[in-house]
Every structure is written in C-alpha cells, then in structure tokens.
Fold this sequence. Notes:
The protein is of the alpha+beta class and about 290 residues long.
Amino acid sequence: MEYNIIEEKNRLIIKDMKDFDPKHTFECGQAFRWTLEEDNSYTIVAFGKILNVKKEDEDIIFSNTNIDDFNNIWYNYFDLARDYGAIKKELSKDSILKEATDFGQGMRILNQDPFETIISFIISANSHIPRIKKSIDLIARNYGEKIDDIYYSFPTAEVLSKADPKDIREICRVGFRDVRIVGTSKMIFNKEIDLNKIRDKNREDAMKDLTALPGVGPKVADCILLFAFHKDDAFPVDVWVKRVMEYFYLKEETSPKKIGAYGDKKFGKLAGYAQQYLFYYARELGIGK
DNA sequence: GTCCAGGCTTTCC
DNA sequence: GGAAAGCCTGGA
C-alpha cells in the first residue's frame, strides 16, 4: 500500500494512517518486547534496532529511524503491504467479529523474527503476559548484545544453545521451561530443523516440523506460524480463545482441539486475524471469565 | 491410534 | 490461594 511519508531528522511521519494503532498492535498479546512510555508512545526492540512509535491524531510517528530502515525492516515488520480494512470488512459479516474488530480496529499482525518468536511462546506456556515480558527481557539482558544503555538485542540460537539450563532458569525466571529453551535452541542451531523452509510449507506440514521442538505443542506452533511466518489460517486456541468461542459460538464446554476445528471451518483463510481480534477483545473485557 | 490426568516453576491478582 | 497465550509423560 502507498503511504504519505514525511522525512525528518531521525524520524518519519506517516500521514493519515488508517488501520494502525500502536496500543492495539502491541498490547494484543502477539509481542512482548515493547515499553509504554509516559507520552503514550511505544518503544520496541526488534531485529537489533530500537524504534519508538507514536500515534498523534491521524498520523503515526516513527522515531529513532530513517527511510532505509523503514523500507528494509519496519514496512514488513508492521505488515504495511496488507489491507486490514478489507480483512475487517470481510470478518465483520459475522456480528461478533464486527464487535471485536471495532474494539481492536488498529491491530495488525506483525512479522516477527522466527527464533525470537519460538522462544517467546515456549516461555508463554502456562504463564501470563507480565511474567513472559519479564523473562524475555532478562534473556535479552543476560544473553543478548547491548544496543545502548537500556536495550539489548534478543540472543541468537547459538548463544542460547550453549547456555546452562540452570542459569536460564535461575536468572531469567523461566521455571520448567529451561530445558525446552536450550533444547529447541540446540535443534535450531544444529540445523535439525530449517526455519527457512517453514515459510514455504503449508500450515499442516509446518506444524509437524515445529512440534518436533521441545516445548512446542499445537498452540505454541500456531502462534509461531501466525506471528513469525504470517500463516493467516493458523488459529491458536489458548484459555481466552476457548472462553470467547464457548461464550459466543459453542455455548458449551468444548475441547481446544474441537474449538480449533470450528475456528478453521468458520473463519478459513482469515482464521488468524479472527483469532487475534477475538483474543484481544476477550482478554481486555474479561469475557467468559 | 486418541483421550485424559497429573505434574511442572513462578508470578500476578 | 487460584490462575496463567501449555507441554510432556504415562496409562486407559
């Protein structure tokens, strides 16, 4: 899509930007490495860069960056080629998705780094967002590379593959997920799984590859497929999606597997977007709790 | 082959 | 004290 961009020193202003709200995009549960600043802007670390994003009226301001990084990194990271207006319009044919997409109207599905996404969602198992954020930050701080006085990059698979699980557990507060983090990092570093090939596979085949990694079951694999590889048909079913689907659609206690099948059938190629609007809607409003 | 119970660390409300 | 963007193992 075309954007009207004003270049200034060390920042870009994107004029009249539709379908992009930093709060909806960062706080919808897909990403964990953002900080809400006092001026309501968000600072994120991704691909070894620090970026500040602020919404001012109808404009979006990207600070600490330039047009080259925008074109080479952020355009794809924020999925700016995609028409979210069209996606929301299609989903809104369902009255519940109409509510959910109105609520999270500025949410976009990011294209995040695969390795970082894999480790992040291994950590997410049986945990909650504040704690997940803390563990990931500690991993970056202790195993990543220093970018400036505050921010660190996420470590490579090589570094985490050589880490001691006991250290990761005790320093980064990841509990029983310690051996899973190191085990998965080893398999990726040793090329027992080729992440580059995941992109070309369909959801089912990619799921088989990913669930071979320790700590990656069906739910975590779907999150990785959606948030790092943009497989739009992935439909991760966590406790909140389970609740919201039971509350609005199934009307009875249903297994996560059956909810997944229901979501696949009902939302098809847009299942990933539907899931994320529903997750954000349900969690913010406490639906079904 | 599928399904289910129990266990797993630690933090947050 | 219960719940948390679940996974793994063992047994029916």
